[in-house]
Specification:
The structure holds two protein chains of two kinds. By secondary structure, chain A is an alpha/beta fold. Chain A folds into two domains: 2-194, P-loop containing nucleotide triphosphate hydrolases (Rossmann fold, 3-Layer(aba) Sandwich), CATH 3.40.50.300; 200-233, no CATH class. Helix content of chain A is 31%, strand content 21%. The longest helix of chain A has 18 residues, at 66-83. The chains are: A alpha/beta, B alpha/beta.
Chain lengths: 233, 261
């Protein structure tokens, strides 16, 4: 089973990119199963099931962070895709807090960014970009060639080892190299590991303490004028 | 060294092969692409800029010096032999003009460059084309439509300085168009203009005719058209003079039309 995990900010064109990839993979007799992980709303699973007749699922992460949810369900999902007789599992996830990334060793990691976003975006999205294998830049027809090239260099400055592919996802231009990368990627093994380090998890706010001000919290905290520090109870 | 680009043609929007099998552009050629709106002119130059390899919706292929272009043309801006001046009249980049141009100069060059010198030259070039000069510390997003187009042309000419330049409806730019053509033609390159402008079309060595997404024909300028071209340029200069007068609040007189009409 080949595993592809696709992340990226909302409305950048992840679904449009994956649609072309699913179609081109099908043409090569590689059937994809599609899993969408989102917080509270998604319909891509129904669209792809209708359009391609492939097995699809969605998971609402709800109270869980979507990337956290991905860790929980990915093992089951690989077995599900296998039972459905697919050769590729595609996971589309809305990485949200920009402190972690959903990619795993053993799966191809793709981040989708749009050329129309600000020039500082590559600096802001953290491991979602820097731990990806490929950064796909969409909406290239919406900006000048010069802007496209400067945007590409802003990505390279923060993530020099990430391959960059510019695509027009409206017409499927530039998708072939992505399909080739999936084909060339080795099958996912049994014991998958998250590629990046998860962020600090001991957080009193996450467990439901709502008081404002670090004085009311313990564990890893921070004040306005200080760096992060540890405070025992 | 780039000596030629070739388009191996594909098909139109509703299928149907194109009117010619291939077009070869030779170094120094000035070419126009003409046709009604929606006929696929912009798609054609996008195919060229993307080094189409049969996978774009038109199925066209682009060869450089008769060979499929190497991947680095697309992956490394320093190796890209094509500069494309799009129809965009706004920038979306939230950077100051000088920082944007310095970055572009750095990535478009294979060796270290005098960034500040190139930025200065680019702005000098752009400011010859636009009514209101561009201030280097302005945000790219603040520039007017005319300033944006002027900067795109200057960036393509000075910073990209590529052997192939594609220009999409440069006449709509709200810039000093005659001056732009004059400045551009000082360079020996392959120029491909998408245009609705008779002056630009007639100044070209040949023109590509488009209809419903297909290249239907390639017409070479003949002697009669070369004669027309002189007259059309005079008419165009007249109209430019009259436009400027109106812009600056002056009155027109009937005498101005004499000698041309």
């Amino acid at each position: 089973m080949k595993l592809l995990i696709c992340a990226g900010p909302a409305t950048t064109g992840k679904t449009a990119v994956l649609r072309h990839m699913i179609r081109k993979l099908l043409a090569k007799n590689l059937r994809s199963a599609f899993l969408k992980i989102d917080v509270q709303y998604a319909e891509e699973d129904e669209i792809f099931a209708r359009e391609f007749g492939i097995p699809t699922k969605k998971v609402y992460s709800g109270e869980l962070c979507p990337d956290h949810c991905n860790v929980m369900v990915l093992g089951d999902a690989l077995r599900w895709a296998d039972a459905e007789g697919c050769q590729v599992l595609m996971v589309e996830t809305a990485g949200l807090c920009l402190r972690c990334s959903p990619y795993v060793d053993g799966g191809l990691g793709i981040v989708v960014l749009e050329a129309t976003s600000g020039m500082n975006l590559p600096l802001k999205v953290g491991p979602m970009l820097s731990l990806a294998d490929i950064a796909v830049v969409t909406k290239i027809d919406r900006v000048s060639q010069a802007e496209r090239e400067v945007f590409r260099s802003r990505i390279q400055d923060v993530a020099p080892q990430v391959r960059i592919r510019e695509v027009n996802a409206l017409y499927g231009i530039g998708i072939d190299p992505l399909v080739a990368s999936v084909e060339a990627f080795p099958d996912a093994g049994e014991n998958l590991l998250l590629r990046g380090n998860p962020p600090v998890g001991t957080c009193t706010i996450c467990v439901g303490k709502k008081e404002i001000g670090w004085q009311a919290h313990f564990g890893v905290v921070r004040a306005l004028e200080n760096q992060v520090f540890y405070r025992g109870e | 060294m780039i000596e030629s680009i070739t388009i191996l043609t594909g098909h139109g929007k509703k299928g149907g092969t194109e009117g010619v099998e291939r077009i070869d552009f030779k170094m120094g050629d000035v070419v126009s692409i003409v046709g009604p709106t929606g006929s696929g002119k912009t798609t054609l130059i996008n195919d060229i800029e993307l080094f189409a390899d049969g996978t774009t919706p038109t199925g066209r292929r682009v060869l450089i010096n008769g060979m499929p272009p190497p991947a680095e043309y697309r992956d490394n801006p320093a190796c890209n032999p094509i500069a494309l001046i799009t129809q965009h009249t706004t920038f979306l980049s939230d950077l100051p003009v000088n920082e944007f141009l310095r970055t572009h100069a750095r990535i478009r060059s294979q060796s270290p460059v005098d960034g500040d010198g190139l930025v200065r030259q680019t702005l000098d070039f752009a400011n010859q084309l636009t009514g209101e000069p561009i201030i280097p510390t302005s945000q790219m997003t603040e520039l007017s439509g005319g300033q944006t187009r002027a900067l795109l042309i200057a960036d393509a000419t000075i910073i990209c300085n590529t052997p192939i330049v594609l220009l999409d409806e440069v006449e709509n730019a709200g810039i000093h168009r005659t001056r732009a053509l004059e400045l551009l033609r000082r360079y020996r390159k392959i120029f491909i203009f998408v245009t609705h402008d008779p002056r630009i079309a007639l100044l070209s060595d040949y023109r590509i005719i488009m209809q419903q997404g297909r290249i239907t024909d390639v017409l070479y300028a003949n002697d009669e058209e070369r004669e027309c071209s002189v007259k059309v340029s005079q008419l165009d200069d007249l109209l430019t003079r009259m436009r400027d007068k109106l812009r600056f609040g002056e009155r027109l007189t009937i005498e101005e039309l004499e000698g041309v009409l």
